[in-house]
Write a structure and sequence with these properties.
Largest sheet: 3 strands, antiparallel
Helix content: 55-70%
Order of helices and strands: HEEHHEHH
Structural class: mainly alpha
Strand content: 5-15%
Length: 185
């Protein structure tokens, strides 16, 4: 039991930091920018980065608008799956564990918005990329970290396997399974 509590502490710490940053930045945007207002810093970077107060009733990147109830249910389901499977991830798979915390934090950050306001506040605008928020970024980076973690995990399994273990089917003689009639003998 103590092992699971320690395991969940790591998950909740990562997710909690993301939710806190997400909610604080969204609140700052809601208090300081009107809906649709753009803040451009007076620097060269303003052509590439700006803050925009945007309302999103869909998924990340503005896809599937006006489907807020569907995404609320999906966020709850994803969070439940993460909570169920997280203790089963070995401690040495720290990238996979990190990604689960990032995914949970992102899902919960946007879920809070959906429950409180009926939409998600997006505000980060980079180049021509769709407007997003800390939770969206956490989900996107979390998925990338998950793939890297799984790739490294698979690569490690191949390194640990004894030579020739990757062959699942033993080699057959060239004429195995071929009848004498077909071979002409």
């Amino acid at each position: 039991m103590k092992k699971h509590l320690t395991s969940y502490a790591v998950l909740f710490l990562i997710a909690g930091i993301i939710v806190l940053l997400d909610q604080l930045t969204k609140e700052w945007v809601r208090l300081n920018l009107q809906l649709g207002e753009i803040y451009r810093p007076e620097l060269w970077i303003s052509n590439y980065f700006r803050l925009v107060h945007w309302k999103n009733t869909g998924a990340a990147f503005g896809m599937f608008q006006d489907m807020n109830p569907v995404f609320m249910v999906l966020s709850v389901l994803v969070s439940a799956v993460i909570l169920y499977y997280f203790p089963q991830i070995p401690r040495q798979d720290w990238l996979v564990r990190l990604s689960m915390g990032m995914l949970l934090g992102g899902a919960l950050g946007n879920l809070i918005d959906r429950f409180r306001q009926g939409y998600v506040t997006d505000f980060i605008s980079v180049g021509k990329f769709p407007v997003l928020n800390i939770a969206d970024a956490s989900i996107s980076v979390g998925v990338a970290v998950l793939f890297v973690g799984m790739w490294l995990q698979e690569k490690g399994k191949k390194v640990e396997a004894p030579p020739g273990a990757e062959k699942l089917v033993p080699e057959q003689p060239e004429d195995a399974g071929v009848s004498e009639d077909v071979r002409g003998e």
